């Protein structure tokens, strides 16, 4: 079964840095895009950054200049380097991927979500 597994969240002080990782496992034929979303308490889930295969990065305005998304295509892994963190960045961060992979019902296009990793920015 294809799935996404995240790691790297935690508690950090304002101005600090964290690096999130998300690896896709299973039999994957093609990866269309990978990205990161976040959801703060009481708010809707929102896009943080995305990176299509062979395409350009896309960042939300509130992270431009502070966060960097990157991918290791050989490992089907996406990273989010977060610098100059602010208390308002506190949220559960979710990895997202559009891919073609194997399921119990056969090969198909899937949109997958990771389990989420909590990032808390607080002094």
Structural write-up:
The strands form 2 sheets. Strands 2, 4, 5, 6, 9, 10 and 11 form a 7-stranded mixed sheet that branches. Strand 9 and strand 10 form a beta hairpin. This protein is elongated. The model has no long low-confidence stretch (mean pLDDT 96). 0% of the residues lie in helices and 61% in strands. It has 123 residues and is mainly β.
Sketch the major β-sheet.
Answer: 7 strands, mixed
Number of helices, where a helix is a run of at least 4 consecutive DSSP H or I residues:
0
From the spread of the alpha carbons, the general shape counts as: elongated
Low-confidence residue ranges: none
- Report how far the terminal alpha carbons are from each other: 40 Å
Proportion of residues in extended strands: over 45%
* Beta strands, count: 11
User: Percentage of helical residues?
Assistant: under 10%
Helix-and-strand structural type: mainly beta
Radius of gyration: 14 Å
> Residue-averaged pLDDT, rounded?
96
Summarize the helix and strand pattern as letters: EEEEEEEEEEE
